[in-house]
Amino acid sequence: MANGVKTSDLDPTYLAQSVIVNTEDGTAPQTVGDFAKQMARTDPLSKSVDGAKFEYETLDEMQATATSGGQNSGGQNKVHKTKDGRFKYSEDLSVPYLHLNGLGVSAVKDESGRIAARLFNFGEDATTLWPEFIGLLETREKHLFIDTDIHLPGVNSLGQLLSGAIQVGTTIEFAEGYAIIYDSDGSTDHPYLEITGATSLRLIRPFVRSTTAPTTRRARPGIKLIGCEDAQVYEPHILSTFGGGLMFSGCQNSRAYHGVARNTLADGFGIYNDLTYGPCVDVYTIGSRTINTGDDGVSVVGYTARGAANERCGHLDFTVVSSFERGGVLVGSIDSALRGRAFNCASSGFKVVKDLGGGPNNAPETHGNIRPHVEVISYNCAHSADPIQPSIDIGNNTESIVGSVSSYGGPNRGIQVAGDVTGPTDVDLQIFSQDAGGQGVYLGNVSGIRGNITSISAGETGLVGLNCTGVAIGSVNLRDYNQDDSASHVGMRLNNVSGSIGPGYVGDNHASTLQPVDLLNCHGLRLSDALVTEGGSEPKKVLIQATCTDTLAPSVRASATWNPGNIAAGGYVTTTITVNGASPGDVLSVGFDQMQSGLTLTGFVSGANTTRLMLKNETVEAIHPAAGTVTVRAEKYVP
């Protein structure tokens, strides 16, 4: 029916006592068919019928009569507001409809102007508690004010009850401290509050919770918005749900501000694509907090089985505390964003990945992530049984990711940028890892990575790279690694890596005597000459394995004062300069600041840490150069 919702779709036992409310002064609500005819029988000017009082001075008086069984016992009654501002009943219109006037449920106002009409006692059976009363919509303002707890049974949600009322521009406002309370054991999958297809919806302080601590996870989030456009949710609070907290599914241009999700069995705040309504587009949560969620604290997930990937979605300025899975996750999204902090999560603090390993009906996720932006910090995360579970995980098929990632603590890897086969491409990140229990930073199967990398006090190797191409790291700072005192960990270990590593520092091995840098199977790799390396058992600091080709390590250099003396025509003089780290076969560059025309200077590495220089007079006359400074640089190059 155009102006109503069929309550016959609900359990009829909920309709034992109800009130139909109308704000059109002195006019009965109009519907269709017999219902309209029955409504037309009502006389709005009647003071009483058979001694029963129908007009009340105050809303409280009206409510008291209704709840005590007065005019509301035995059938369905109508309340409306008279022209003089009083409230009136009409009697016993036993029809299976809950009337919704115009664009929403009607209501009356109290003296303060608040929308304060009530819906009474949908069923008296304690096992099927519906709201004792809720504030309803005023026709013109479309504003629902809820100033009481709403008890829901296990078979329906408040959103299903109000689905006919939620239309363009509807506002549902909860008085502070009042909640939608779920009284069942979670055996059904209906959300506590679910709204579908609304436009310009406003939810103010929605609060949902369960009466019992949830134990079995179900598809039953506290609040679920499906296919809504311009939905704005302010200060949502979700506590102890059998599913997630607040879920956007197939919505557009929607936001949730400063929400809290605590003790949910699934994601705290989630953004998903929908099989019917398609992807979420331009949907964000801002300033949200999640605590003890059973799955991701916050997530953006686009399942292939549900169609296109989400676009321009994410979670900004959020805090995740103690999620049992990832703190935050992006998967199957375009131009999406994560910006926030995660604390003490059982799995990764943050994850950006193509494949979560399954979705609805075990459908894999194959969208990948295009142009995600992350600014995330993870504190003491990844407490799982997986020894390589990283605190921050940038994973499969991540394309053109940009931003910054920082990890503090955690028992395993600090930050991982890697894929199983097809890893991230076009990565531009500022990477910082401190006090990781395992490797500080791990790069695997990455194609094209830029940015800067810092790893401090890693339990194992500071930076590991495997099967990476197009590496263009601007700088590295790898310090105080190998906190677990192993004999096998180094500052930087690269295997099958090509590209360039910029200036920086690798040193302060906590225990091992291995070289700070270990290169294996690398081809076309250049380490900056300004990369300083310290520690290890040998001065050269960089171990280039024989399996490398076209690989250039940082040079080692030295200088000394030299007085060649007089050099006869066609003669030469030699000297020996110590260059720690030089090895026979290194490419040697030499210079002398007192060179003259007719003199040539050459040199070679004659032994470990030793170079030999020769200054030759190519003329037919003696030359006596002044004393000066000779400089030597030895480069390790594998052609």
Question: What report would you give on this structure?
Answer:
- The chain contains 3 helices and 54 strands.
- With 639 residues, it is mainly beta.
- It is elongated and about 110 Å long.
- The N and C termini lie far apart (82 Å).
- Mean pLDDT is 75; it is low at 1-141.
Structural class: mainly beta
**Dominant shape:** elongated
Oligomer designation: single chain
What is the rounded Rg? 37 Å
Low-pLDDT runs of 5+ residues are 1-141
Helix % is: under 10%
Termini, distance in Å? Answer: 82 Å
Reported for the largest beta sheet, the result is: 40 strands, mixed
How much of the sequence lies in strands comes to 35-45%
Write the layout of secondary structure elements.
Blueprint: E1 4-6, E2 18-22, H1 33-40, E3 48-49, E4 52-53, E5 55-56, H2 59-67, E6 76-81, E7 87-90, E8 97-99, E9 143-146, E10 150-152, H3 158-162, E11 171-174, E12 180-182, E13 193-196, E14 202-204, E15 207-210, E16 223-226, E17 232-234, E18 237-239, E19 246-249, E20 252-257, E21 260-262, E22 269-272, E23 281-286, E24 289-291, E25 298-301, E26 310-321, E27 328-331, E28 333-334, E29 337-343, E30 350-352, E31 369-370, E32 373-379, E33 392-394, E34 398-399, E35 402-408, E36 415-418, E37 425-434, E38 441-444, E39 447-456, E40 463-479, E41 492-501, E42 504-507, E43 517-520, E44 523-527, E45 531-533, E46 542-544, E47 549-552, E48 556-562, E49 572-578, E50 587-592, E51 599-607, E52 610-617, E53 628-635, E54 637-638
Parallel strand pairs: 2-6, 9-11, 10-12, 11-14, 12-15, 13-16, 14-17, 15-18, 16-19, 17-20, 18-21, 19-22, 20-23, 21-24, 22-25, 23-26, 24-26, 25-27, 26-28, 26-29, 27-30, 28-31, 29-32, 30-33, 31-34, 32-35, 33-36, 35-37, 36-38, 37-39, 38-40, 39-40, 40-41, 40-42, 41-43, 41-44, 42-45, 43-46, 44-47
Antiparallel strand pairs: 1-8, 3-4, 5-7, 6-7, 47-54, 48-53, 49-52, 50-53, 51-52
